[in-house]
């Protein structure tokens, strides 16, 4: 065994002692995941990785030469799933990224890795996502329309089905508002070892402690948003709020079923 191989072996042994639990944190946009992801990565400084949304989109854009931005926002998730698999094959212990649930990753790594996520009230998540993305000229995921106009777009309907998109395991051209997508998302979330709620961070920390053996302190990153819109649900006219609830019906179905009677997650 040469010096490099010896060093790699020693590092692996050190990580097995210091950070034995491997996991993937599925970061759904605007669910408090920036705070959670950074807390976990600080705890796992010796072996952690993320995939930056902007950089991965720009890499996808450069490689494909495409300019159909709205569709690329969906298709880039395939690249991020491939990057997730790469990091798992590299045996990175803490992986935190905007990535859909991967049947391939779960089937191949479920004995070594645990899967975790945190969710948020769907209507609040939707509006926070809009606020964050509105009128950011150079951002890959920018939203250009005023809220009432945006609510009529395909992008709005996609955002209202973010949970079924992220957790159903269906291909990117699926109907994520369908009963099948919702059912699959709920079933796949039951494969997770920890599914938290943004309004109960103490409960999520307890899940991480009890089910993964990880103790973390979670701060508040991105709080209040840095977008040019700062709307809250209480600011909206009743009919606008009702339309957001209607658009978010798929996510509401996943959210309510996920937490009804307590999430029966995988230990």
From TrEMBL:
Its keywords, alphabetically, are: Transferase
Q: Which residues cross the membrane?
A: none
Q: Which Pfam families match?
A: Sulfotransfer_2
Q: Which GO terms describe its cellular component?
A: membrane
Question: Organism's domain of life?
Answer: Bacteria
Signal peptide start and end residues: none
Q: Name one GO molecular function term.
A: sulfotransferase activity
Protein transport recorded as keyword: no
Transferase as a keyword of this entry, yes or no, is yes
Indicate what this protein is called per its UniProt record.
Sulfotransferase family protein
């Amino acid at each position: 065994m040469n010096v490099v191989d010896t060093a790699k072996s020693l590092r692996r042994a050190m990580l097995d002692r210091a950070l034995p639990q491997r996991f993937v944190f599925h970061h759904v946009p605007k669910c408090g995941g920036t705070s959670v992801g950074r807390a976990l990565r600080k705890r796992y400084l010796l072996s952690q990785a993320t995939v930056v949304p902007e950089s991965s989109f720009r890499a996808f854009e450069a490689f494909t030469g495409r300019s159909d931005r709205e569709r690329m926002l969906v298709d880039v998730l395939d690249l991020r799933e491939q990057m997730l698999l790469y990091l798992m094959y590299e045996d990175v212990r803490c992986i935190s990224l905007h990535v859909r649930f991967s049947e391939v990753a779960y089937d191949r790594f479920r004995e070594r890795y645990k899967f975790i996520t945190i969710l948020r009230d769907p209507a609040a998540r939707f509006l926070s996502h809009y606020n964050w993305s509105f009128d950011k000229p150079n951002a890959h995921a920018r939203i250009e329309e005023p809220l009432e106009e945006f609510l009529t777009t395909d992008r709005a309907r996609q955002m209202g089905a973010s949970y079924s998109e992220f957790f159903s395991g269906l291909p990117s051209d699926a109907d994520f508002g369908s009963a099948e997508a919702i059912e699959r998302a709920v079933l796949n979330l039951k494969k997770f070892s920890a599914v938290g709620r943004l309004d109960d961070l103490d409960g999520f920390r307890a899940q991480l402690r009890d089910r993964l053996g990880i103790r973390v302190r979670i701060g508040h990153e991105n709080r209040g948003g840095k977008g040019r819109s700062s709307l809250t649900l209480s600011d909206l006219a009743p009919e606008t709020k009702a339309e957001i609830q209607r658009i978010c019906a798929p996510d509401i179905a996943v959210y309510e079923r996920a937490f009804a009677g307590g999430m029966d997650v995988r230990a």
